[in-house]
Amino acid sequence: xxxxxxxxxxxxxxxxxxxxxxxxxxxxxxxxxxxxxxxxxxxxxxxxxxxxxxxxxxxxxxxxxxxxxxxxxxxxxxxxxxxxxxxxxxxxxxxxxxxxxxxxxxxxxxxxxxxxxxxxxxxxxxxxxxxxxxxxxxxxxxxxxxxxxxxxxxxxxxxxxxxxxxxxxxxxxxxxxxxxxxxxxxxxxxxxxxxxxxxxxxxxxxxxxxxxxxxxxxxxxxxxxxxxxxxxxxxxxxxxxxxxxxxxxxxxxxxxxxxxxxxxxxxxxxxxxxxxxxxxxxxxxxxxxxxxxxxxxxxxxxxxxxxxxxxxxxxxxxxxxxxxxxxxxxxxxxxxxxxxxxxxxxxxxxxxxxxxxxxxxxxxxxxxxxxxxxxxxxxxxxxxxxxxxxxxxxxxxxxxxxxxxxxxxxxxx
Length: 413
Prior knowledge:
The protein has 413 residues and is α+β, with helices and mostly antiparallel strands. It is 71% helix and 8% strand. The protein has ten helices and four strands; from the N terminus they run αααβααββαβαααα. The chain has helices at 2-7, 10-66, 75-90, 102-111, 121-129, 158-168, 186-237, 253-335, 342-373, 385-402, and strands at 94-100, 133-137, 141-149, 175-184. It has a four-stranded antiparallel β-sheet with strand order 1-4-3-2, sandwiched between helices. The two termini are 100 Å apart.
């Protein structure tokens, strides 16, 4: 139930909640008034009924004490009957009658006189219980019954005892009969129901007017500002930082929301500025990096061009030196049949090896340039360790001799 209520729009939730509270309060009030009005109607009916019973009791007692004979037709009894008839005619909605007890009925039957038995089960219950009682029968009829007890109340006169005990064997404390009345509450209840219907309709009208006023106030003070804040929030989320709530001075929750939205707007604007500054710094740094990279690449290209040029300039005379050294070595080996020029042949060989080593270094420098340009190719080949070690020996032997160092190289077979 609560989950369904939360799923409804805020307006519907508020109106339903207020309606429930108002209806509950009005229902309790109407229920209390209904119970009170019904009780007042019944109390008023009891007062009217008891007044009728008081009159009936007084007239009956006087008639019984003043009657001259026990047979029907006695003037006092006829006066009683006429009074009861006249009362019923002049008091619409109230009926009164007398109920005879069992012994009185038996006596009347024996005498052939008029018998007045119980009208309903309620008369019998009161006669048996010997206690006055009142009840509402059929929803609209108030029934009242008052027992007549010999020796008590209106039957306390000694003449009552002489008559009823002597002729009917009724003992003191026994019920001789019942005074009964029936009050029709129908007209009063109908008028009450009409008033109740009018009150319910008035309450519903009041509820409707109250809900309309509440809805109007909610729309003016809450719903419209909330919708404006929602629209401004959407604009702010879309990047519009020029929004202004205009409700920050309110001291209620709407004002708190408006101030929070203003704070969020200012923070978003500050973030935008920081992001722009950071982007500007990034673009500047990127431009600096590209410029530095371009300078580095230009320097690398210049270096590569310089090395290529210098290598070419060095390799040309170096190749000539190596060529002349090879020619010299060949001639020395050809003319030196007795081994007299062995040292010269060795020196020529050292020149050739050193020249070729220098040429290899120049080629390595060119390879470094190629590696920097990304154009180097790795070539693998098999080489002899003895030849490699002997070549290194020839290169460093001259420096060792200059420093008077003995250089000993051994290569395993």
